[in-house]
Design a protein that fits this description.
The chain has a 10-stranded mixed β-sheet. Strands 3, 4, 12, 15, 16, 17, 18 and 21 form an 8-stranded mixed β-sheet that branches. Helices cover 33% and strands 21% of the residues. The radius of gyration is 27 Å and the shape is globular. It is built from 21 helices and 31 strands.
Length: 776
């Protein structure tokens, strides 16, 4: 197809005819699934919109999407995502719609049942009906972009979803926020729903049929998933102009997400004739970047633990009506409904019917001590998170950004934002319900007691926050807001403790047992506090800092044990002299050629487990070191193993890995050595590598994923990196091209100005002009 494009064409030069054509598309009714004639008509209308959109792929494959309107940019942005990794978009959406079992079978049934109990599909459809015209426009554009991609790329064969609806993106946002991030904060696992749901078979109601061996496998999976979630975290920093060599505020974006699955990052840039100019990252299937920078502000998020989910015990004791439950001095009526679920088995798809129950406190999702538990999630029914994220991405100052966040439609996430005016701001964001102080909200409460009812929500201004602190910086690494700036023991003469104080907030606001000050926050505060002024090069270098804080603290304890051992068991101690001397002389900086790093990382975890079990006899740290040496000798033939020999980055397709991090990783396939390490060791460069059955090496599954270093200026200076590359196609040059930089602790350029985008454009095209970059 001949391309019609002028690289110097300004956005204002797009014709009114093209804009009118776009309006016809967004106003057009979505075709029904399987209606080929209507589908073809929609594709034809989308083709007109496609001609108004230009996608520049830079030399790293990052899409810079130009269009006359914000909606046209959404169309182009999702089209680019589909080119790069349609498989992951569909995977994310089928999970969001509660249809994963249709593709993956019984193992995904509990997740689907949770999705259906939360009524994510129904709520998302209703949200779309009530949405603002702008939101509907953006949602329709996303659906049109995906459907157009499928129409012009018939070689791509969806596994399940052959047509996308405008409300699907709202279901995806609700799934990610509530099912992926919030649901587990209740203490429940997906499998807990099995006894709370009934299966209907041959008109008989009974327990859900679920294989015993799969229950055992799922229990291990959920335990591993919980362990990983407790350790994997994120970092974000901001400094004011007085701590910057350029006199400009600096922002460090470092959200740690899994390298595989629905939560992995995709980088992109949307530039519209309506003034949108946003570069950043989002999850596959999102309409626009949800963190990044826009020429006025830069922002990021980390996961926090505001108390935004409660469990209620429900008492059904009416002998005449099994759906009536106790409430106050009387009772209320529960609602029951059925859902048909298709589950793939060895013989193909099987339709199964399940019965769900909900109360005014929420749906029943577990049975504990014989009592049904209902779950209530803050603002689950409200939605509108997409509107808030859209407004945040268009803000032109910290003040405007705060106004965009004020409705608290985004139910969680710590947030730091900086602007070109030199302002920096942190908030412990959350849609936190007001509650009675009489109850222990960390446990299920009595659903029959009216005093357990929520009384609205805390206002944005009532949440912990801090703006332009005197210390000159803000940081959050998933720890409590009470240690955002230097804590008391870190203060120097004349400095004051500027952190929010716990006494200022309701006791249920923060889950402090999960948000204690952690080593990542401590090393971050050390770096930020001790540096008088950051040059931009310092800022990018510190974004990959590999100082191991815990090594400084823990190695002296090991040495003391060894010295005590030397006087009591000299022969045993003599065998450990060389590794102990290596650890004593180590600078506590992780590097790919570091043997002490391997010894410390392997020993640290073993020692912690012994100490946690109170197994303190016979020198626990020494025993942990001995176990490390023995394991290295057995696995590698020597205990002198460099960290980079074990700690590796390798890319496999998302279909080749499970949620435990076990997959098709192979020692005999190409991989790269990585200096990063798990966050609990107190390191900025986080990298979580998982041992693989039958392999000597460990392979990364989470950690530093999308990373950005931004200097806030009229023309921002920015560098970014993804751990792998932009494309999910193994045949693409952008499958693993950023990994080489990542392994060297380096960033790639992030081109923002149009002149820079065009100067580094690898190719440019309208959607539909080129074959898809991703395989089905």
């Amino acid at each position: 197809m001949k391309r019609v494009y002028n690289s110097s064409l300004s956005l204002s030069s797009f014709t009114l005819v093209a804009v009118a054509g776009f309006c016809l598309i967004v106003a057009g009714r979505a075709p029904a699934r399987g209606d080929d004639s209507t589908y073809a008509g929609a594709a034809a209308r989308a083709s007109a919109l496609a001609r108004t959109v230009t996608i520049h792929r830079d030399t790293f494959g990052v899409p810079h999407v130009y269009g006359p309107t914000d909606a046209s940019c959404v169309f182009g942005f999702i089209y680019a995502q589909a080119e790069d990794y349609f498989w992951q978009i569909e995977d994310s959406y089928l999970r969001s719609l509660g249809r994963a079992a249709e593709v993956y079978g019984d193992k995904s049934l509990p997740d689907d049942l949770v999705n259906l109990a939360l009524e994510i599909t129904r709520l998302s459809k209703e949200e779309y009906k009530k949405a603002t015209p702008k939101t509907k426009e953006l949602c329709q554009a996303l659906a049109d972009g995906l459907n157009y991609y499928l129409a012009v790329n018939p070689q791509v064969k969806p596994r399940l979803i052959t047509h996308f609806e405008p409300w699907h993106t709202l279901a995806f946002r609700r799934f990610i926020l509530y099912q992926s991030f919030i649901y587990g904060k209740s203490g429940l696992k997906a499998s807990d729903i099995l006894p709370a749901v009934q299966e209907i078979h041959d008109n008989k109601v009974g327990a859900v049929a679920f294989p015993a061996d799969l229950r055992a496998e799922l229990a291990v999976l959920e335990q591993d998933r919980q362990s990983m979630s407790e350790h994997v975290g994120s970092n974000m920093w901001a400094v004011r102009p007085d701590k910057s060599a350029s006199g400009k505020a600096l922002m460090f974006i470092n959200p740690h997400q899994p390298f595989f699955g629905p939560g992995q990052w995709y980088e992109g840039h949307v530039i519209s004739g309506e003034g949108w100019n946003l570069l950043g990252a989002c999850f596959f299937g999102s309409p626009f970047p949800t963190l990044g920078y826009n020429g006025h502000v830069a922002w990021s998020h980390t996961v926090n633990n505001p108390d935004i989910v409660d469990l209620y015990t429900i008492t059904f004791d009416d002998k005449t009506d099994p759906l009536r439950y106790r409430y106050g001095d009387g009772s209320k009526q529960a609602t029951a409904w059925t859902e048909d679920v298709t589950v793939k088995d060895a013989n193909g798809p099987v339709s199964r019917r399940f019965r769900f129950t909900k109360t005014h406190q929420g749906p029943l999702v577990a049975i504990r001590n014989g009592k049904p538990l209902a779950i209530r999630l803050a603002k689950l029914e409200d939605g509108e998170a997409i509107e808030q994220s859209y407004a945040m991405g268009r803000a032109q100052s910290v003040a405007e950004f705060k106004e965009a966040m004020r409705p608290c439609k985004l139910p969680m996430f710590n947030t730091i934002v900086a602007d070109t005016g030199g302002n920096i701001f942190y908030v412990y964001n959350g849609a936190v319900p007001r509650r009675s102080a009489k109850f222990d909200w960390t446990k299920p409460v009595d659903g029959s007691n009216p005093e357990t009812q929520w009384q609205g929500y805390l206002r944005f201004d009532e949440l912990p926050q801090l703006e332009n602190p005197q210390c000159g910086f803000l940081q959050n690494c998933n720890q409590s807001p009470l240690s955002t700036t230097p804590v008391a023991k870190e203060l120097q003469a004349g400095e004051v403790d500027e952190n929010p104080k716990a006494s200022q907030y309701p006791p249920y606001l923060m889950a402090t047992e999960h948000e204690r000050d952690n080593p990542r926050a401590q090393i971050s505060r050390r770096i930020l506090h001790s540096t008088a002024k950051f040059a931009y090069e310092d800022w990018t270098r510190d974004g990959f800092n590999t100082k191991i804080l815990e090594a400084e603290l823990r190695i002296p304890d090991l040495v003391k044990e060894w010295e005590a051992l030397s006087s009591k068991e000299p022969d045993r101690a003599a065998k450990l002299k060389e590794p102990v001397e290596l650890l004593k002389g180590w600078d506590c900086i992780s590097a790919v050629d570091s043997v002490p790093m391997t010894l410390f990382a392997e020993t640290y975890d073993r020692a912690l487990k012994l100490i946690a079990k109170r197994d303190l006899q016979n020198y626990p740290r020494i025993r942990a070191l001995e176990a490390t040496l023995a394991n290295l000798e057995k696995t590698h033939g020597s205990w002198k193993v460099a960290w980079g020999e074990i700690n590796r980055l390798q890319r496999i397709h998302g279909s080749q890995i499970d949620q435990r991090g076990q997959g098709a990783f192979r020692d005999d396939q190409p991989s790269l050595p990585i200096a990063g390490a798990p966050g609990p060791l107190g390191v900025v460069f986080n990298f979580y590598a998982v041992p693989q059955a039958g392999q000597k090496r460990h392979y990364g599954v989470a950690g530093h994923s999308f990373v950005g270093a931004i200097e806030l200026a009229a023309q921002p200076k920015a560098k970014t990196i993804l751990q792998f590359g932009e494309s999910g196609d193994p045949a693409s040059p952008h499958w693993f091209d950023q990994a080489a930089l990542y392994a060297k602790k380096q960033f790639k350029p992030s081109w923002y100005a149009q002149a820079d985008v065009e100067a580094h454009s690898e190719r440019h095209y309208h959607p539909g002009e080129q074959a898809a970059g991703a395989k089905p």
